[in-house]
Amino acid sequence: MRGEPLDAETIVSATEELLRRHGPDKTTVLDVARQLGVSHGSVYRHFASKAALREAVIRRWLDQVRNELAIVAQNFELPPAERLRALLTTMFAMKWAKAGADPELFATFRVLAAEHSAVSCDHVGFLVAQLRDIIIDGVAAGDFVASEPETIARAVLNATSRFHDPTHAAEWDSPETEAESAAVVSLILDGLRAR
Amino acid sequence: MRGEPLDAETIVSATEELLRRHGPDKTTVLDVARQLGVSHGSVYRHFASKAALREAVIRRWLDQVRNELAIVAQNFELPPAERLRALLTTMFAMKWAKAGADPELFATFRVLAAEHSAVSCDHVGFLVAQLRDIIIDGVAAGDFVASEPETIARAVLNATSRFHDPTHAAEWDSPETEAESAAVVSLILDGLRAR
Lengths: 195, 195
What we know:
The structure is a homodimer.
Chain A lengths: L7 H15 L6 H8 L3 H5 L5 H24 L6 H22 L1 H12 L3 H23 L8 H11 L1 H4 L12 H16 L3
Helix pairs in contact in A: 1-2, 1-4, 1-6, 4-5, 4-7, 5-6, 5-7, 5-10, 7-8
């Protein structure tokens, strides 16, 4: 055991800092160990590979995203349609802000999403579950019609790919993105609404 | 003037063949001239650059796509909702088939789309116009409600990005893509329908 306590959280923070400065290709276990002034064995004790390290960084960021989104999704003062709109709009805004402010970290996230990594698939599962629960509430309230809430939730996520899928990040700084996303969300809500 | 007639069409065909075999990075004006057994000046007389050559190849492919889509969009035997569904479904199927059968050529198309080239922007303009015209027909028939058909047409194209935007090509061979696209199209049609 080493003298100073080296916990996973400290390693993740150091990795995030290196990813931010040097990008996903140039952040190895050795780089992280050097940054912390420890042996690479100390890092390997917590993270078996470079891939595990970058997954941990993105997982921590997505945990924050999920915490914020859960608050919006569970704001029961809003009717289901407005909760759905708020959830989607908040999700877009968090992605756009991250892609703009922290492009190297976002590039790491893009790689993980393209690889359909566990961390990325878990996140999609969370989003589908949040959307599904609001759709079920909307059906119960008589506001929405949806025979298969899980399928519809996935369709909502697919129909908004252009505004949250990291593969589209290069388009997000267009001045039209916000208005275009609002038009898609309105079209989706009209599709869900009971007639 | 050269002895043999060298027209633009012949050059475009030779370029397409080279793109198919070697991809967008390795197809230069010189390669095309060598393939045709002519001087590179003969090619430059028609196409000023490698970029102009690959644009011409993609423009020819997209001309064929547009011809097929226009036939579907103008099949007035179908009610507007079914014409819209047929137009979207045909557009997806043509993209998926091209990405699968001709990946190098499709990679060229992806580059042009990402660059927002004239050829790609013209194509988006065509798609929006086709969708808009069907939406206007649907409103006239009392089937659809849409206050701004052009804006809604663009929203329909944005909401289906995952199924036609070349940036998503790597996801299209998933066995779920067809069912997922059908769910999104149904959600969109529900959104357009008059209640």
